[in-house]
Amino acid sequence: VSLSEVSAPASALSLRGVQHTFAANNVVKGIDLDIAQGEVVCLLGPSGCGKTTLLRIAAGLEVVQEGTVSLEGQAIAAPGKRHVPPEKRNVGLAFQDSALFPHLSVVENVTFGLKHLPTSQRRERALELLTQLGMADYVETYPHMLSGGQQQRVALARALAPTPKLMLLDEPFSSLDARLRDRIRDDTLHVLKKLGSATLLVTHDPEEAMFMADRIALMRDGKIIQTGTPRELYCAPVDPFVVTFFGEVNELEGVVQGGVVQTPVGAVDASWLPEGSAAQVMIRPEALRIKERDLPAEAHSHSHVVMAKLLGRTSLIHLCAHGVDGQEAHLHARVPGVFLPQEGQPIDIDLDHSQVFIFPR
Ligand code: ATP
Question: Residue ranges of the domains in the chain?
């Protein structure tokens, strides 16, 4: 036994080789995932990729067909061996459509899981969480009088109240309007970090995952494609799917020559790919930087504006770029602030290479 094995604390949640099939439909295909104590991990991926199923397996709402689920080093579910039921797992659950108890008031819903505390402390604890989640004015209200977003906040408070070691949250902010969502995300993250609960949060929203997560596990078609910090996934994506999942991207084709691929906006390093091979170049819109904004209309330039739109914090520029060798490409650039050049305006572009990715074709 090595020293590191002795000293490393057990993961709050550990999934090993987890597979799941509905009828003949294999929806979870061999997942390994660890969540450290106090860590927030987001399961991110397109609709139907198996996120909810994996969360339900961790919660004990689905029986494990293959693989193992462990909490703090204890195997609690493995096929044919044991299945600790959800209510015995000391896990907080909040789902997209978490039903509140209709006959209990908001505060009674939240105190429901606090039977282990003295009565005086139960209410105090519930009020504290409801206040943090912006529900202080609805303490004595009944669920049917609340909006979907308000119900979701009560469900969150109820899940958080017993300070479980592990929180499992499935799209917990989906019923909130955009403005409120930012605030509740912020408040929820604050509460999670204060309680030190390890958290597995399911979302299909890359921005939500980047905001909430210490680490993101990006899934596609029942598999985890990449696990890492938001920065690792955004800045060091392992394949084209990871790049496109985080937003619109310009895609170009090319051939590796002299260790680079030539594009109409410059050469891109491809020294790790075989000479002569086909490559896919992916350029994020923000990687196209406007080098010269005020070229005279008659200037010779490698690019010209096709269309410009102000989107608020950024301006979107559709441009046509002409390479030195007669290559032409239509590209989308995003630049900060207000920049609304005329159609046909020549502009000079350069590349922020940290937001350009190249993959074998
Ligand atoms: P979403 O973001 O849309 O909720 P998801 O990534 O959470 O999607 P899951 O809900 O895990 O995906 O579903 C994965 C696949 O399993 C889907 O094809 C779904 O139709 C199927 N599935 C889920 N639950 C069941 C079930 N109880 N019986 C049969 N098929 C199911």
Answer: 7-243, 248-290+300-360
